[in-house]
């Protein structure tokens, strides 16, 4: 059983990201979109938390949101909307942190 | 595969546009959308009275065009809609309100429709917040 977690809120405004990382399963994926991509800001505490969580290839970010915010990162795989659709099917369910 | 999408945010929220782009990508990839469910502030996207600033995307209009073009089952939560003043002709008459702002292609119905969609679809994907 795997879950794709989707976060769209900035990691600097609430603790959704840290809560999510705490209960992320070993097969779960994490997709950052909207202001949540600020978690990939180099040198930031959220990025350290993400690196500490050691998600490897299970960390994703929406490409257009990275571009809109001028963020590039090796930590997450940048994906477009067709890949987002496929990603939701690659997991058993999708949990959006509304 | 079958998708059900729930939209919790109004048309001016980035997440509503994200839901629309996801829905377009899902259909373009050959998947089916069994139902779109507009809940909480998402009901504002169904209002015919939303006027977007000229230099911004009119996401409610894009939703309307998308639903119409693909003849999708687009349900607006009736309780969420009534409390936000989003009424079809039937409800406007029932509660004696002066205006109607929920024409076709939208349909007012209850939360049970979201539950049913979640059972029918292979994936339920929710969009809300920022």
Automatic annotation (TrEMBL), chain A:
<dbReference type="GO" id="GO:1990228">
    <property type="term" value="C:sulfurtransferase complex"/>
</dbReference>
<dbReference type="InterPro" id="IPR027396">
    <property type="entry name" value="DsrEFH-like"/>
</dbReference>
<dbReference type="GO" id="GO:0002143">
    <property type="term" value="P:tRNA wobble position uridine thiolation"/>
</dbReference>
<protein>
    <submittedName>
        <fullName>tRNA 2-thiouridine synthesizing protein B</fullName>
    </submittedName>
</protein>
<dbReference type="InterPro" id="IPR007215">
    <property type="entry name" value="Sulphur_relay_TusB/DsrH"/>
</dbReference>
<dbReference type="Pfam" id="PF04077">
    <property type="entry name" value="DsrH"/>
</dbReference>
């Amino acid at each position: 059983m795997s879950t794709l977690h989707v976060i769209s809120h900035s990691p600097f405004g609430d603790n959704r990201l840290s809560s999510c990382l705490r209960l992320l399963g070993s097969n779960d994926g994490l997709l950052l979109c909207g202001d949540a991509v600020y978690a990939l800001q180099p040198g930031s505490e959220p990025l350290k938390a993400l690196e500490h969580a050691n998600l490897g290839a299970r960390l994703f970010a929406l490409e257009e949101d990275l571009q809109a915010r001028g963020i590039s990162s090796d930590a997450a795989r940048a994906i477009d909307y067709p890949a987002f659709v496929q990603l939701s099917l690659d997991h058993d369910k999708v949990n959006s942190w509304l | 595969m079958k998708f059900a999408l729930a939209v919790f945010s109004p048309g001016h929220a980035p997440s509503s546009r994200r839901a629309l782009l996801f829905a377009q990508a899902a259909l373009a990839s050959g998947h089916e959308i069994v139902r779109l469910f507009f809940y909480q502030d998402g009901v504002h996207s169904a209002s015919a009275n939303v006027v977007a600033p000229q230099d911004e995307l009119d996401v409610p209009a894009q939703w309307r065009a998308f639903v119409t073009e693909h003849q999708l089952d687009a349900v607006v939560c009736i309780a969420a809609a009534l409390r936000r003043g989003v009424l079809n002709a039937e409800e406007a008459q029932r509660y004696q309100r002066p205006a109607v702002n929920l024409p076709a292609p939208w349909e007012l119905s209850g939360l049970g429709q979201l539950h049913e969609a979640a059972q029918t679809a292979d994936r339920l994907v929710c969009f809300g917040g920022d």
